Amino acid sequence: MQYKLWIDGQWVDSAGGGKMRIENPATGEQIAEAQDATRADVDSAVQAAKRAFYDGRWSRLTPGERSKAIWRFAELLEKNSEEFARVESENTGKPYKFLSLASDVPFTVDNLKFFAAAARDTHGSHAGEFMAGYTSMYRREPVGVIGQITPWNYPLNMAGWKIGPALAAGCTIVLKPAPGTPLTTLMLAELTKEAGIPDGVVNILSGGNDAGQAIAEHPDVRMVCITGSVGTGKKVMRTAADTLKRVHLELGGKAPFIVFDDSDPELVAAKASFAATANTGQDCTAATRIYVEKGRAKDMREAVVEAMKNVKVGSPFDDSVVMGPLISGGQRERVMGFVERAKSQGAKVLTGGGVPKELDKGYFYSPTVIAGVEQDWEIVQQEVFGPVITIQEFENESQALHLGNDVLYGLAASVFTKDVGRAMRLTGQLEFGTVWINDHLPITSETPHGGFKQSGFGKDLSAEAVGDYQITKHVMIAHG
After folding, report:
1. Which end is more exposed in the chain, N or C (fewer Cβ atoms within 10 Å of the end residue's Cβ)?
2. Is position 225 annotated as part of the catalytic site?
3. List 88, 250, 293, 383, catalytic entry
4. DSSP strand E in 111-219: where?
């Protein structure tokens, strides 16, 4: 199947005529062809978004009118859930029943419905007299044209996370999904039109890195919002400096999973194996570094290894499968490289560490547990982005805190303990945007998601996300 670019409410061919091969990572076979947007296409999309913003067809609608359109958009996605889930699984290798249909699509629907309601939120609007003879009002206005770049690990989810708050705020959008996974994002385009969102408000371009760079450079783009790697975030931030545009960055993670000896090994193993292998570990919040208190380290380690061995890996359309392939051959080589380099340093692979023998087609990799590592090793410090966890031991709470914080990232962390006081102390000192107690991974539309340190800044989800797409104007009125 061939997909075009969505600009100003219609499908168009790329000005350069370039095409991109889209494959199914479970088989390595081509499933579609998408247009490769050029800088000229980016400019066309930005100009369409600029016209749509300044003529007020969206930005000057009432919050209630915007809310109705976003809600209809969510309902249309919900109506087409099975089709979107099928394409998402074909394009990414996610298990259809376990993830795409049960989680990714319904959560995106919920996100959009939340942002439909958030469009009408009057939180933060106020007026007052702060100087005799004058009244001041604070207006929360949309930033303008937003450039958005989404990753390949959650194509549909991330599109919803970006589109929803930007539309709720009254902004217009030029969105570029990752080169290899544009299909469900492009499918959203026609739903926006059917929902009554005016032409030019949402523009979607498939394309490579040059198209993303063009979005970041464009002088009429007022803000760039990306989910991606730390390296990509830094490049976007440097580029944005030339035009002093806002940046919103949700970047990498290296989540610690801290386990005290009062925890239940079965609970720890179940939560760790799920958090490490959900979406094949291609998740910035995935559990990657398990730290266990020495008193019960052996019990915890054995339980985790057994749970990882029992993770069902296979075809995305096998209903019993909970983990599919990695996204590409290149990503599998990257993951294998991390594991092999750790082994060469003296690490011990307790399970996994290679390609499952029965899955020679596609880009599968076994759930992997590695022990015998040091804190300063690459496998502990850098984001692997695969179903790989390391296990280390700690002596006490202070050391657990130090080890947990001792990375450049700060997106998510978890603590397993029955001691409420200990849990509260650690939540206040762990430098991560989300900290779970006795669980790992659950998120909701109402709760903010974003990082500390080199995991970026700005929030996805929650009312805070809408605020990131708004700018405050002070209006001061003399009484006469």
Report:
1. C
2. no
3. 250
4. 127-131, 134-142, 145-149, 172-176, 202-204
